[in-house]
What we know:
Structural class of chain B: mainly alpha
Structural class of chain A: mainly alpha
Number of strands of chain B: 0
Oligomer: heterodimer
Helix content of chain A: over 70%
Mean pLDDT of chain A: 88
CATH class of chain B: Mainly Alpha
Strand order of the largest sheet of chain A: 1-2
Number of domains of chain B: 1
Strand content of chain B: under 5%
Number of helices of chain A: 20
Radius of gyration of chain B: 16 Å
Number of strands of chain A: 2
Order of helices and strands of chain A: HHHEEHHHHHHHHHHHHHHHHH
Amino acid sequence: MYLNYLASISRYIPELLLVVLMVGLILIETTYAEDDKNKRYIFITACVGLVVTFVSLVINLSGKSEAVFSNSIIIDPFSTVMKMIMVLGTLAAYYLSTFSKEIYETLKTEFIIMAVGILIGGMILASANNMLMIYIGIETLSIISYVMASLKKNDERSSEAGLKYALYGGISSGIMLFGMSHMFGVLGTIQFTGMAANIAKLNHTQILIMMPSFVLFFAGIGYKIAAVPFHMWSPDVYEGSPTPVTTFFAIVPKLAGISALVRVTMIFFETQSPLRVGWIGLMMVIAALTMTVGNVSAIGQKSVKRMLAYSSISHAGIMIAGLTMINEIGIRAIVFYAIIYVFMTLVAFYITSIMQDKYGNDHFERFQGLIYRYPFMAIVMSIVMFSLTGLPPLAGFVAKWNIINALLSAKFYTLAIVLVLNSVVSAYYYLKIVRLMTLKQPESHETIEEFSFINQFIIVAMTAPVIILGIFWESIMAFAGSAKIFIP
Amino acid sequence: MSIYYYLAAFLFCLGLLGTIFKKDLISMLLCLELMMGGVALLFILFSKSTGFLDAQLMVIFTMIISACEVAIGLSLIIALYRKKQTIYTDDIKIITE
């Protein structure tokens, strides 16, 4: 028994490394915080720690899939790939925070400490195999997020964002627990192992209790993804928080929630049952609503950051649409979409953050005539916007096409049509930025100060996959296809 | 059994409605705790009726985590109160719809 735990720890090294990194960063911060010159130790430690975590995840990828810690955690290629994407997102958001002016210098170290904490929560959620781990994962993710959203201490908007996030989070986790308690009452276990067989044995009355319980259970995860009935917090929090924090929120909690949702779906509904039909129906409605509400609300926005918040809601909807067929093709499409989504979102938020630092706000007018003043930024932003819309030579097209392909192979024509129509709607507000940047005259002719070579290099490095993967996507597709879910 | 179920469900609904409709933040946090209390009672109840102990584990974690959540919420309320001198939700809408 005890040896089992020791053996489990050997598969759990990435998470343990992050815990050590978080503690180490706190210690370094308390020791060296007085002297600004020593800030670079924290920067180096954080980068090295995250890179080492990434490497250990790569090593974990080749090991065999298994359930560790008495079946409460599953280590499989799917969760490992999702964790790798999350670590990359954290690294990029952290780099953005180091040169962003929105986070005070004294709080930059706290940003990375909390980001690592949230990453640990996300990792727990991505490989959770019982209700308790899902709850702990969601709460580890949420509780630190509340603090992180209100990182700008002197700004009322930031505090309000954090408070809103906390209240919505409390309500939705309460609702989720209410659903979980009824699920436990019917099934008699909190473990997910052998769940499909348990569900197949239920009688009519028990199924009637389970159906609303699943809807309530979805509230907790749907809140983290910002799926539509639970999306109200998302634009306010995204707008109120500093941009690096928004970047981070658009990637890590969202992908962690998606991976938990994928795992729950695959484990609970692999066999035919009335519940499976109900769940597919629920997911289709949620996906269609999430896409539509996200895109339609994004149209009238004045702030680019708020527009990106709504657009990230609609992207979550597309990823949920990949879940409706409950098979390998759908999961492959979701993983591929997640990889592309991270790069597109990161570049869009980087540019928005630079504009925000320059002008103090991020309204659409600030982007007018950007191509005359800073061609590099305008070109990169245009590429990303075209990709987010899903225009052919770019990676966003391939990602969307895969989801539609999976939908068509399962004969869900209505949802596929809704998805395509939503792409048309999204073209309006994405291309609005491109139009403002290229066709309008600039507001003033003052030039934007050059940013350093390394920043340009990083932005190009993040844009390159968007272009390259649009054409040469077979290898990444095979990689996403190898990310299989392990059902113990 | 059934009377306790109704009690727990009543507590949960009371907490949920209170969190949604109350206008001051402290009451909202209190209602949140009430909601968690109702859920904890439900877990204990189902643990008793099914005879499995997993749910009692959930109760302990629920209590710990909801305490953390309220502590964070309270500190955020204080941070906002220092700037706005109010705890009523109607007065602190700053982010526009």
